[in-house]
Amino acid sequence: MSGRVILFNKPFGVLSQFTDKGTEGSPRPTLSGFIDEKGFYPAGRLDRDSEGLMVLTDHGPLQARISDPKYKLEKTYLVQVEGTPSEEALEALRRGVTLKDGKTRPARAEQIDPPEDLWPRNPPVRFRKSVPDAWLRITISEGRNRQVRRMTAHVELPTLRLIRAQVGDWQLNQLRPGAWRFASATGA
């Protein structure tokens, strides 16, 4: 598949589009504040309050292959949750949970150590001494609206921070927030 690809580490609070069509008083930060290459479009979305890897391309068929759920392209997230995950909660995520818009496909879900080289979030995640938190690695093969957040809430582990680390074979690696680089159209 041809076309050029950009990998971008979307910071917290940035819209995953090039213009802000919102009705809020002042414009919100968008991709145009970080990427000035012409002809590129996001292949999929990442919520404003989520961070991490976005794939952009200048090739329509590649954009469709990345973002269309029928291709079942896997996306991996590092998820800081409130609470302590039980094996039952993780197993429910692995089987798929029933949300208002139907049952999710099975996910890969595991508890992990806090990521070592993680950048600080601005604003920081609120810290509460009385409530523990934990980190999960969750891989899904669909992309419903706010799906990972809704899945963790369903198993009573509200998401505090959500970072997409991988889309298909493309990985965030050491890309810092707000930075981008060109990548192979086949992933890497």
From TrEMBL:
InterPro entries per UniProt: PsdUridine_s_RsuA/RluB/E/F_cat, PsdUridine_synth_cat_dom_sf, PsdUridine_synth_RsuA/RluA, PsdUridine_synth_RsuA/RluB/E/F, PsdUridine_synth_RsuA/RluB_CS, RsuA_PseudoU_synthase, TruA/RsuA/RluB/E/F_N
Any one Gene Ontology molecular-function term assigned to this protein's record: RNA binding
Domain (Pseudouridine synthase RsuA/RluA-like): residue spans on this chain: 5-154
Chain intervals with Basic and acidic residues compositional bias: 102-111
Keyword field: Isomerase
Assigned EC number: 5.4.99.-
SUPFAM superfamilies named among the record's database cross-references: Pseudouridine synthase
Signal peptide: none
Biological process (GO), any one: rRNA processing
Sequence segments annotated as region (Disordered): 102-124
Family affiliation: Belongs to the pseudouridine synthase RsuA family.
UniProt-listed NCBIfam families: pseudouridine synthase
PANTHER family the record matches: PSEUDOURIDINE SYNTHASE FAMILY PROTEIN-RELATED (PTHR47683), RNA-BINDING S4 DOMAIN-CONTAINING PROTEIN (PTHR47683:SF2)
The name this protein goes by in its record: Pseudouridine synthase
Organism of origin: Sulfitobacter undariae
